[in-house]
């Protein structure tokens, strides 16, 4: 099979099913969503087809912009926290012997396979007043009475980091295993301390993958719904929660569509950046 | 550096395992409300999972949706990955992007898109709506695994078949397809597990009529915690950890995740 061979019309026919499915059930729904963003919302009766910019004007009001900036801010922060911990962890992991190495990978993958619903639920309990971390501290005599740490900003941040952390590790993992131990050994033979080697050799080599991992966590947490919904107050909600809230509880589908398009553009810009960084990394290695 | 290594690894492991421990303890607590320190030991919440008709219905919905949508995702991904990787097609990068786009964007985009789509057709609240939505959203996973397998496949094998006189169709059926089976299985498994866990698409597309497990858990949490929810979570975790442990024993987990074998050997020797 030659990769330069031109396909026959019969071969192209094979593509009809997958491309048809993607067009009908992804592109057309997206088109309907774009159209809906111009529709008119009837307070009583859902929405009616129209062509007006009311929803788009609402998007550029300070109230909404503030929400959008909050979402972007908390997700950037989650990206920074994840990278700051996941990078040294993955570096240590890739330098371990087989047994602990595989065991830790299983822990990471088990955390990865947890549903966002279950993650939110277990942190909801851990950070709660009735049976959480504070109860353990009271039981140990460190604290006098139990306290609730959710809903709060910190709880949302913690939850977002938890769901993104395994993905972050798996993004860094392939590159860091390819970092030849001879390079760090050479630095140490030349007199650098392990600490200095880490900062002046390992981090600079891995810089592109650090940036890619950071942006990946950003997009991933931007899409999270349940974490912010359960662990935060409405002022801690992210864009995904607002969109779902407008689409279901408020029955304002036109405005939900407008926000969804805004979120799509934002995500595409970030995904484009990741693609750019990855293609540049590939050229270097 | 060594001290830092111990601290970082311990903190991460405690952080990742903390939720698992909480739900494991909560699922065997006798008391209906989770309290600390826990009281007694009871497996009744697990029993309820299989006797309560509400939970049984949700399990059936979730498994049906995950099973069929993952199969549909592989059916969408296989021809796309095969044709795009074996022929010269000008639109190939664009079509590949179309295949990975649903999963690249936040799930709320697919969720809302499917909601307005089914609303406009008048065909609302059906299980097949969720199956199709999940199939499209998760088809990216088999598309990536199968495309990778196509790239790493030894091109001499299909070429040999062609030289020996097999036509295109026979070559695909007897050589290429069998070589692609492992990547199709991996893609299916990934799509299946993620579909079981998915909430927002299932909720917006048909959440009020087709109550999948995640939707039922969230609805249940609105009215407070029940240990049954913890029991569901434990079952999920055990399935996932078993799958990965088997993978580690029978396959090569490190290779699968992209590690470089030559460098791993150097670590082992060090």
Written account of the structure:
- The complex is a heterodimer of chains A (285) and B (270).
- Chain A has one domain: MetI-like (MetI-like fold), CATH 1.10.3720.
- Chain A has helices spanning 9-14, 16-36, 54-59, 62-94, 98-112, 116-126, 133-139, 153-177, 181-189, 194-205, 207-222, 226-231, 239-247, 253-284; strands at 40-41, 47-48.
- Chain A is 73% helix and 1% strand.
- Chain A is mostly helical and 285 residues long.
- In chain A, strand 1 and strand 2 (47-48) form a beta hairpin.
- Chain A has a two-stranded antiparallel sheet.
- Chain A contains 14 helices and 2 strands, in the order H-H-E-E-H-H-H-H-H-H-H-H-H-H-H-H.
- By secondary structure, chain B is mostly helical.
- Chain B has 2 domains: 1-42 and 226-270, no CATH class; 55-224, MetI-like fold (Orthogonal Bundle).
- The relative contact order of chain B is 0.13.
- Chain B has 14 helices and no strands.
- Chain B has helices spanning 2-27, 44-51, 53-86, 92-104, 107-121, 127-138, 140-152, 156-163, 168-197, 200-206, 213-222, 227-250, 253-256, 261-269.
- Classes of the chains: A mainly alpha (285), B mainly alpha (270).
- Chains A and B meet through helix 1, helix 2, helix 4, helix 5 and helix 6 of A and helix 1, helix 3, helix 4, helix 5 and helix 6 of B.
């Amino acid at each position: 099979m030659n990769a330069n061979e031109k396909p026959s019309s019969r071969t192209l026919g094979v593509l009809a099913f997958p491309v048809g499915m993607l067009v009908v059930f992804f592109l057309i729904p997206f088109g309907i969503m774009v159209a809906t963003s111009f529709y008119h919302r009837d307070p009583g009766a859902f929405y009616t087809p129209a062509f007006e910019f009311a929803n788009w004007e609402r998007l550029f009001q300070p109230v909404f912009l503030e929400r959008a900036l909050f979402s972007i801010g908390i997700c950037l922060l989650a990206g920074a926290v994840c990278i700051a911990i996941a990078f040294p962890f993955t570096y240590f992991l890739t330098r371990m012997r087989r047994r602990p190495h595989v065991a830790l990978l299983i822990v990471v993958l088990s955390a990865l396979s947890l549903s966002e619903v279950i993650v939110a639920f277990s942190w909801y309990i851990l950070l709660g007043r009735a049976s959480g971390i504070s109860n353990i501290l009271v039981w140990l005599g460190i604290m006098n009475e139990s306290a609730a740490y959710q809903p709060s900003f910190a709880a949302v941040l913690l939850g977002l980091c938890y769901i993104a952390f395994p993905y972050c590790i798996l993004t860094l993992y392939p590159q860091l295993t390819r970092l030849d131990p001879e390079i760090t050994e050479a630095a140490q033979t030349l007199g650098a301390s392990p600490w200095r080697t880490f900062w002046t050799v390992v981090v600079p080599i891995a810089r592109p993958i650090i940036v890619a991992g950071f942006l990946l966590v950003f997009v991933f947490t931007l899409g999270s719904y349940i974490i912010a919904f359960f662990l935060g107050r409405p002022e801690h909600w992210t864009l995904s929660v607002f969109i779902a809230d407008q689409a279901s509880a408020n029955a304002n589908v036109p405005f939900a569509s407008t926000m969804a398009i805004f979120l799509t553009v934002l995500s595409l810009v970030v995904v484009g950046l990741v693609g750019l960084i990855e293609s540049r990394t590939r050229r270097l290695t | 550096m060594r001290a830092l290594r111990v601290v970082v690894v311990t903190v991460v492991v405690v952080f990742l395992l903390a939720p698992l421990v909480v739900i494991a303890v909560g699922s065997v607590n006798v008391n209906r409300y989770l309290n600390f320190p826990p009281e007694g030991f009871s497996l009744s919440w697990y029993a309820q999972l299989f006797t309560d008709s509400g939970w049984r219905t949700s399990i059936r919905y979730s498994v049906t949706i995950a099973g069929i949508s993952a199969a549909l995702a592989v059916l969408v991904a296989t021809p796309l990955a095969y044709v795009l990787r074996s022929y010269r097609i000008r639109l190939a990068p664009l079509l590949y992007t179309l295949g990975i786009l649903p999963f690249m964007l936040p799930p709320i985009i697919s969720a809302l898109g499917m909601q307005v789509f089914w609303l406009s057709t008048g065909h609302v609240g059906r299980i097949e709506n969720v199956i199709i939505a999940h199939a499209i959203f998760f088809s990216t996973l088999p598309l990536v695994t199968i495309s990778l397998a196509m790239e790493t496949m030894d091109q001499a094998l299909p070429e040999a078949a062609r030289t020996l006189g097999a036509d295109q169709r026979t070559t695909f059926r007897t050589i290429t397809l069998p070589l692609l089976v492992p990547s199709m299985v991996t893609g299916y498994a990934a799509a299946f597990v993620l579909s079981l866990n998915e909430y927002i698409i299932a909720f917006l597309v048909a959440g009020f009529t087709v109550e999948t497990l995640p939707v039922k858990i969230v609805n249940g949490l609105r009215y407070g915690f029940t240990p049954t929810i913890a029991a569901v979570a434990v079952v999920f975790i055990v399935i996932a950890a078993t799958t990965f442990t088997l993978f580690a024993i029978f396959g090569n987990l490190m290779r699968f995740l992209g590690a470089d074998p030559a460098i791993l050997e150097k670590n082992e020797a060090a």
